[in-house]
Model the fold of this input.
Amino acid sequence: MQLGRQEAEDTLSKAKKQWHDGESEREAQIRAQIGAEYATDLQRTKSKLAEESTERRRLFNIVQELKGNIRVMARIRPMTETEVASNCSLITSFPDIDEVSIERPGKARTQKYRFTRAFPPSTTQVQFFEEIEPLMTSVMDGYHVSVFAYGQTGSGKTFTMHGENVSNNECCDEWGVAPRMLSGMFDTAKAMSDTMEYTFRLSFLEVYNEKAYDLLASNPHESEVEIRQNLSKVHISGASVIAINSAEEALTQLRKGMRHRAVVWLLTQQLIRLHHMRTLC
Done:
């Protein structure tokens, strides 16, 4: 009787084990099937996303080309405290978003100039950057883009391009085009990290009297940077090219370059502002 009970228990135990083994095998098969279907769906979704992303880039940059591959914008700075104290007055007005009128005292004729966009003295850094920001998308899509400011000494070029309060990494209202562009590019790269991989390298040069200074070098006034031009391209040799992996690193290099820019300006002993350019590739 005892032997019969033991055999029954062994048989039951073996049956349970076979059932559990069968369940585990079926569960593994179901999981494998679900995993394969998920992987197929994921790959199909990624392919569709890549196609749509390519089409978006194409259409977006067609719009940019329609706006003009070369755009000229005018930004009029507010009067300084010295100008206000001297009872100066503004002689510019803005009849339209792309027009600047100049009314000179004693002159009967009003001069009018048209640009891609015209920005009055009340324009904030944020408002100005909104016009530039689509170019950042073109950069992230692989297009070459250049943005530079031109004007006489004290006209607001450095404020527009660099801004103020860039000593920390948190964007503020006074930031100019360069720090906003750098920060925005890394935000875009992070948002698209699932489908795109970006690498960033930064150079920062200053040009005075046909001589280029490397503002990211340890001793920029002793750096030897050569700029050569052939029929289609400009070649720059001897400049520092810094690999950067985050917006914080980019802003650190930007601040370093601006500090060296002031040093180079003092070493020239000239009462003239220098031209500087940042390159991100």
Observations:
- The longest strand covers residues 200-208.
- The two ends are 87 Å apart (CA to CA).
